[in-house]
UniProtKB/TrEMBL annotation:
The lineage of its organism: Bacteria, Pseudomonadati, Bacteroidota, Chitinophagia, Chitinophagales. Residues 1-26 form the signal peptide. It holds the Pfam family GerE. This is HTH luxR-type domain-containing protein. The keyword Coiled coil applies. The chain crosses the membrane at residues 417-434. SUPFAM superfamilies: C-terminal effector domain of the bipartite response regulators (SSF46894), TPR-like (SSF48452). Gene3D superfamilies: Tetratricopeptide repeat domain, Winged helix-like DNA-binding domain superfamily/Winged helix DNA-binding domain. GO terms for biological process: regulation of DNA-templated transcription. InterPro entries: Sig_transdc_resp-reg_C-effctor, TPR-like_helical_dom_sf, TPR_rpt, Tscrpt_reg_LuxR_C, WH-like_DNA-bd_sf. GO terms for molecular function: DNA binding. Keywords: Coiled coil, Membrane, Signal, Transmembrane, Transmembrane helix. Residues 599-626 form the HTH luxR-type domain.
Amino acid sequence: MNHILKMRVVIVFVALFTLLTASSFAQTVRDSLKQVLQQPGLTPEEQVMTRIRMGRALVDGSRKDAIASTQTALQMSRTLKDRKYEALAHSALVSLEYTAEDTALASHHLDSAFLFARESGDQLTLASVWYRKGWLENRTGKPHEAVKSFQESLKLGKGLPGNIYETNVYYNLASIYADWNDTETQYRYAKACLTSAMTRSDPDDICNGYQAMATSFEYQFNGDNSKRELLDSSLYYNRKAIAIYETNASRISFHSMVALLALNTANLYDQYFPRTYRDSAQHYLDIALKIGKETDQQEVVASCYGMMSTFAMNDGNYNRASDLLLAGLLALKTYPAPDNRLMAHLMEALSDVAEKKGDLPKALEYAREYSRYYAKAFDVDRMAIAKKLEAQYQARQREQELVTLQEKAAFNRKLNIVYIGLIVACLVALLYLFRSYHFRLQSTIQQQKLLEKEKHDGELLIRLKEEEALRLQLEKQEAELQARLQTEEAARLQAEQQLIQTQKEQLQKDLLAGTLQVEQKNELLESLQEKLREKAVQPDLAKQITRMIETHKRMDKNFETTRTEFENIHPEFFRKLQEKASNSLTKLDLKHCSYISIGLSTKEIASHLGVAPKSILMSRYRIKQKLGLGKEEGLDAYLMAWRENNPLSEDAAG
């Protein structure tokens, strides 16, 4: 279970405009922006910028409304002379459309943002668009291109007043170099991020700067665990970031980031500190869980419950661990679209806990649920991969089209020069040179068309081969997954069959031993009966002894028959009763218990045993004492509980 729930929490670097804000904060900003829009005398430029900010505030509640607000700002910006406002509106739509999973449209807005930013001539606007380009490239799996874009943004915005993107550029660069395990460069950009944030005094930027430093020290500590001062530094900056959040909660935009910080801090305490620091870990888990629920972060919520269940498991409290996992499962189900992979992880953990508790049916049930959710997650991942490949294909196609247009433009420029030369030559050589040029031009154009067609056909063939190879790879992965699932299911079924066979063999051994004992006893009684016939004994006494012997034979016969039938249904019944009574129950007591458990009344039991009902009542009282049942607990209810709740346990007795 550790590989699922006690997982390493690595804080994801996100830019300031990722648009993941807490609902309460978004509501406050939304209301204030509405009031701004209602103010008289607001200039068109101010209205455009306010609506762009409104789009950012609305994204957490309704992405559709956020896009609509920003589209309105874009329409208004087209009436303005300064093109920078249109560039900023397109730039804002890049992140909104990307979060709406429309990468192609996001790329289109990015191209438009560059076009209008260059037309405006505003260097800071162009720096912001380069930042947005790096942001999109980093999220579409192009980190090397993203680094170049971020560096261009830093170069253009260096020293400019009002450069709100500098902190975020350093933040994203630190993220990329962390993924590349370049801890030295990561630390340099994380330090630059914090320095830039301190100059702006913005709580969001300062929180991001502290978090970048904490992550940098954590990565360095992972490389050399002997340097505990690196771990202490990581915890120090994490606590500083959380303290900024707690003192500026109303001004913090990205509450979700603080949830990840708190979760990471709890994980560090749990992983690298002794058990005496459990309270510290739990404190930060409570913070992470609270903010995770408020900001709808399913992974944070699941991780919190998972880590707390691991604490309970380490304490040997399996019931508590199971309850925590079920609470996490319930929390995930409250989301409109719960993450199938997280649901699968929780189901797998519940299966492990049930197995440790000895509840194999539950463990199997949770394992089946795990397989079901994992299959759903696999389908979602496959669709996401398909969309990503489609977006990459469209991006490559657009890049190729851009290259083709550039080549055509260069060719046209050269061709214009040739035209001018040919016109001069035509004026000198008159009609003959003009006709010569005409034929030569036609030949050149035809050759260019043939070359372009061959190039296009070659590119199309390569693209088709790549797509076919990708499709075959996906089919192979799916087949491997199905085979693995079938192997696991066969192993579970084999384990269940072995358990049933073992129980059956043990029952047969117990039945054989009991049968031999009864036969030996009957032989002894028959021998005694023969001796009585041979000896001169008083007739009344001989009859009485003979009747007692016959009664015992009948009781043994009835007992063995009942016991055999009963143990075929409940093989653990007599053993559990003996354990409860400390092996103090007699065979008559066990027979009495078996009659009660199958629902016979006191009169029916007395009739079967050939005794008075009063004797049955006394026997019931003795059995209750041997089983340790209280006055308020009924023997009938306790024994019949075995038939409904297998195995018999202390909980069933209560």
